[in-house]
Amino acid sequence: MTNYFPENFLWGGATAANQLEGGWDKGGKGLSVSDVYTFNSDLPKDQWTDQWHMMTYDQVNQAQDHSSNQLYPKRLGVDFYHRFKADIALFAEMGFKTYRMSIAWTRLFPKGDETEPNEAGLKFYDALFDELLKYNIIPLVSLSHYEMPLYLVTEYGGWSNRIVIDYYMQFATTVFNRYKDKVTYWIPFNEINCVKHHPYVSVGIIEENHPNIEQAKYQSAHHQFVASALATALCHQLIPDAKVGCMISYQLLVPYSCDPDDIQKTTESQRTSLFFTDVLSRGYYPSYAKRLFEEKGVTLVIEEGDLALLRAHTADFISFSYYMSSAISAHPERLESAEGNLITGGIKNPYLASSKWGWQIDPKGLRSALNQLYDRYQKPLFIAENGLGAEDVLEDGKVHDSYRIAYLSAHLSQINEALHDGVEVFGYTAWGCIDIISASTNQISKRYGFIYVDADDLGQGSYNRVKKDSFAWYKSVIQSNGNSIVS
Description:
single chain, 487 residues, alpha/beta, TIM Barrel, eight-stranded parallel barrel, two-stranded parallel ribbon, hydrolase, glycosidase, GH, Glycoside hydrolase family 1 protein, Glyco_hydro_1
């Protein structure tokens, strides 16, 4: 097989501050929406993701009680806050060309509505970026990755309140000015489409007893669209050579059967993701939005100038996370559902294997997804997340994760096929390049990394780092620019 990876392809890894850093009470940091999530190993595993989808007022209030004895894993992370230099050295040893990361909003503005940033937080990221650049690793930075200040939720109602645009822009302005000589790749919002599926962590909406949750979701999305356009315009002004992308969580959706009802349902379901890239990449609301809003009882409040702003400041590139595909049926009650599918629900595809967490594994779906997105938008694509969550075992100081190598090899091979198809893909960052706290289940034992972190789901362990077998494998992939995969 011919290698189609371009010479300047950006190989690397990805993490999020709220799952990685720890140091939740260091350097003046405030509480974020993710600092509220608990982990309770006594609950049945099928309930571990419930918090991800729903959050109650009692849970939010308890999380702010300093006497609470609950375990909040994302406050611990994997202690990157204190160990980032050694961890970045390991990234460099693998040969990373880029590192996709996020800035914790609450390190810079602990409550979110302060008039001046927290200098200690700014200095932390100064040191982090300097360490990356020392190894010629290009930072690709998400401004908001499920990390909005909790205070903006409890006091302002989250993104459903338009004033949050102003607070976000104060944050973005501070970041662009401070790091304009260090960062040129930016993503305003991580997985912006996930407001549909977990609105608390995405836009700060607590669904409990909400009078019109669909109205709140789409109004919040509109405010984030406006904020994204404003941030894109400002970034281009302050950093002329910057590239500002958008990002969605993307699953390839396929009809479960050739029943016309399944085909139509698939089209409608796919739009739950493409609606967001349609607005951010094309610069306007798609025609199908009119019926969508009518059926959901949504009437957007759009201020004068909003639509012109969206049209004038579209994304330079499209990035997305890809973990699985999903089969769609108009009659799902008759069929076996796919476990662990956080985005669309969906039906179990009998042609695909599944991970331990029920995520169906479909490497060829990634090629199809790349072609679909490029055909639709004709903009450069970046795969911002892809990986396999698994229960790795540390034995005699080693982790033999051949299953991860097989998973990633298969997906990278399909990226090569998409490049051969003519799709413009300029980078790939494997998710959780070092073990981190799972976004959905709040456990560390659902591991993605090339680097093992010696800690358990209860936060106990040495937190020492151990290179897995996949570490050497990924190093060879990068060194050969993909030749070791496609040859």
